[in-house]
Design goal:
It is built from twelve helices and 13 strands. It has about 325 residues and is α/β, with parallel strands linked by helices. The strands form two sheets. A seven-stranded mixed β-sheet has the order 7-6-8-9-10-12-13. Strands 2-1-3-4-5-11 form a six-stranded parallel β-sheet, with helices on both faces. Strand 6, helix 9 and strand 7 form a beta-alpha-beta unit. It starts with a helix and ends with a strand.
């Protein structure tokens, strides 16, 4: 800053006022300072600005992992909205580990981010609290944090799972299996509750597997279960990973969909319409969820306020009917 001031022929306070916009300078002075900044390639020290109580124009984003296309879509939405408002995004992952999540959140605070958006790890084990973040605004999305002071953006997990299970029942299926990851995950548990309610309302027997952590584990379960006398005639996969593992397992096992086994999944993805057959899904608004969460965070930052009780926003889902469930459609049908 001293070099800029010397080249522009002004004082360092004038340079500081020009860069921060905290007070006006004459047009001629602004031109000289801007020219000096460009000639010297000067970049403000954001950390030093944070120490002076100024914003860093950066936000943090913590995701469970990025190899799931759903989380990648969420990240894209967050960064897009942030850039539109002049913010950069620092992205990291928790690997579904509450201790690692806590450590990464602490690193974000050490970098003096202006706020944080996150998809929490297993919510029942999360160590994140309002007091830990102090005055830094935080918005959770896709999954809630136990502390009720956080703003949260969710989707209709239970209702969507209930509706798609009902659809499979309407196709005449009486043995429908639910495939997913751990019930410790908020979304998986909420979707299972929707599935179970539809099964119970129809007087059927639930059949669930919470171990779709790899294609191998999914293949083992499917191969054993399909040999039983009460083998399922349809499966409902509760997230993108479970869908991926189940589909690849069925292809390797030579299972015909929907002839041998009907299928529906929770969450749409780019190739769902191109699989053979095309996949019936519950489509959740991944990008919209990321946009709403980021806009809510930026609003908190601009207002400089923290809620006593956080907002809880629930976005609607859609049922996208294709052919894997047994529907004989030439083009997808979307049910709102």
């Amino acid at each position: 800053m001293s070099d800029v001031a010397r080249l522009a022929g002004v004082g360092t306070m004038t340079v500081s006022r020009f860069l921060s916009g905290s007070a006006g300078v004459t047009e001629e002075t602004a031109r000289r300072v801007q020219t000096a900044v460009e000639q010297l390639g000067y970049r403000p020290n954001e950390l030093a600005r944070a120490f002076r109580g100024q914003r860093t124009n950066s936000i943090g984003l913590i995701l469970p992992y990025l190899y799931d296309s759903f989380f990648a879509n969420c990240a894209h939405a967050v960064t897009t909205v942030a850039k539109e408002h002049g913010y950069s995004v620092i992205i990291t992952t928790s690997n579904e580990d509450p201790d690692l999540e806590f450590a990464e959140a602490e690193r974000m605070l050490q970098r003096h981010v202006d706020g944080l958006v996150l998809i929490p790890s297993r919510s029942r084990q999360s160590r994140l609290t309002r007091s830990f973040f102090g005055k830094t605004p935080v918005v959770a999305f896709d999954r809630p944090v136990q502390d009720q002071q956080f703003d949260t953006v969710l989707v209709q997990n239970t209702a969507g799972a209930h509706r798609i299970t009902q659809h499979l029942i309407e196709h005449g299926h009486k043995r429908i299996a639910f495939l997913g990851l751990s019930r410790d995950l908020f979304t998986i548990n909420a979707r299972f509750l929707g599935y179970r309610r539809a099964i119970q309302d129809a007087g059927l027997q639930e059949d669930s597997f919470f171990g779709c952590v790899s294609r191998e584990d999914t293949s083992i379960w499917l191969s054993q279960r399909l040999k039983a006398s009460d083998a399922p005639t349809a499966v409902f996969t509760s997230n993108t990973l479970a869908t991926r593992y189940a589909l690849s397992s069925m292809v390797l096992m030579g299972i015909r969909i929907p002839g041998d086994l009907a299928m529906a999944g929770f969450d749409d993805f780019e190739l769902a319409e191109l699989t053979s057959p095309s996949l019936t899904v519950v489509r959740q608004p991944a990008q919209e969820m990321g946009r709403v969460a980021t806009n809510l965070l930026l609003d908190r930052i601009s207002r400089g306020e923290l809620p006593v009780t956080g907002n809880r926003i629930v976005l609607p889902v859609e049922i996208v009917l294709r052919r894997s469930c047994g529907c004989k459609l030439k083009t997808p049908a979307v049910i709102h």
